[in-house]
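Recap from last week: sequence in, structure out.
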Amino acid sequence: AMLDQHRPDIVVTMMGINDGPLADPLYTVSSSSPSLRVWKLAKVLYASLFREGLEDGAVDPDGRVESLQVAEIPHVDGKIAIGLPHLTMLSLKLTGEMLFDGRFEEAEPILIRHANGSLEGAQRWPTTWAVGQLVMLYYQRGDEVEGAKYYERYRELIDVRQNPKTTTNYTILKKLVAQRGLPLVAVQYPGRSIAPLKHLLQGAPNVALVDNEATFMDEVKTGPLRKVYRDLFAGSFGHLTPYGNELLATNVADVIFDLVQYSVAVSDE
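Predicted structure tokens:
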């Protein structure tokens, strides 16, 4: 309906990280009851952990506290049931902050322990993200040999598999876009290999891919994390700073510009 309503010239997407159960690895709950005492406690703890200094009525420009979904703790037979993946994800939030602060010696043993964790079921992604944070750690510390070793493992863990919901979403989208004769610009996440996206969209007509792997990895090797990222919620990347957004937008714009040039050249012929 949106395609027909707005009749765009080009469709640009960057999607997948929030599909399905990966949307919130900690808890799948609602934050619709902020008056709950446990919710207020969670806000205080979160603000303290990440030095936000937020109080009731304070402005939260990034929406970080309000987006933390811990209003309900999962229970089994009346007992709190926080499994290993949940504790690991909380731990990775803390190690991510350590990396931003340059506390590499503190973060390293914690991340190595999590990186050697299980790859079964819900534990696979926390383990993968721990490996991703180790990549950031070693590149930030200037150890490119160890960084490259863990990055190779990270790429193997990500490999060409996609969340089934991401595959479904892209399959539907590329069909809808192709039916309308529109080009699709599919953007990979910062620092992630383009291989899974290329595999997913192979054979699709009029598709251009935006590769953000080298751009962001080079930044991590040569400058502080805070220059590019605001957090490391996905292991090897996170929400971007204005500078990081500019890098991403430039890569997308370059691909769009090439598409427009090609389209003009074909029409001239």
